[in-house]
Design a protein that fits this description.
By secondary structure, the chain is of the alpha/beta class. It has one domain. The protein is built from four helices and six strands. It has a six-stranded mixed β-sheet. The longest helix is centred in the C-terminal third of the chain and has 19 residues.
């Protein structure tokens, strides 16, 4: 079966627990009926795993669970959007660029407010200095309505 690359609109969210220097992060926004190909970890499951692992002091380790889709709350999504916009302001981006980023983020936020479900995905990475994996749409879901959004930096 030939796989086609799925274009990912760039959404740069560089701070917070969802990104780090050794991974490539993505947001997945999907309708509630989407058939997802990856295991989904919900908020309650996240809390349970965080409490079971004392080495992280009760915090959820996003990178350790990188082979799953992690469902995030609308509040978390809003927080990371705010961090992205704040980061661009600190970098003294032009106001036109900040407005464009806000419009792009607002479009995804509208999908969430209309009932779509936001998830987080960290690309698998090999420790032998192999760059992060690029996810194809088929890795996540066969549903054509799923939107895969690049979030963060690749190193």
């Amino acid at each position: 079966m030939q796989r086609t690359k799925w274009p990912n609109p760039p959404v740069v969210i560089q701070h917070g627990p969802m990104t780090n220097s050794s991974s490539s992060s993505y947001f997945v926004i999907a309708p509630p009926t989407a058939k997802l190909n990856l295991e989904v970890l919900d908020f309650e499951g996240r809390q349970k795993l965080a409490l079971e692992d004392p080495s992280y002091g009760g915090d959820f380790n996003w990178y350790e669970h990188n082979k799953r889709l992690v469902r995030i709350t609308p509040g978390e999504w809003a927080s990371w959007c705010a961090l992205a916009l704040g980061n661009w302001q600190q970098r003294e981006e032009s106001m036109a660029n900040i407005v464009r980023l806000k419009e792009k983020l607002d479009g995804y936020t509208k999908k969430i407010l209309d009932g779509a479900v936001p998830y987080h995905l960290v690309a698998n990475r090999d420790d032998n200095e192999i760059p992060p994996t690029h996810y194809n749409r088929e890795d996540v879901s066969e549903d054509k309505q799923v939107v895969l959004i690049k979030a963060g930096e690749e190193h």
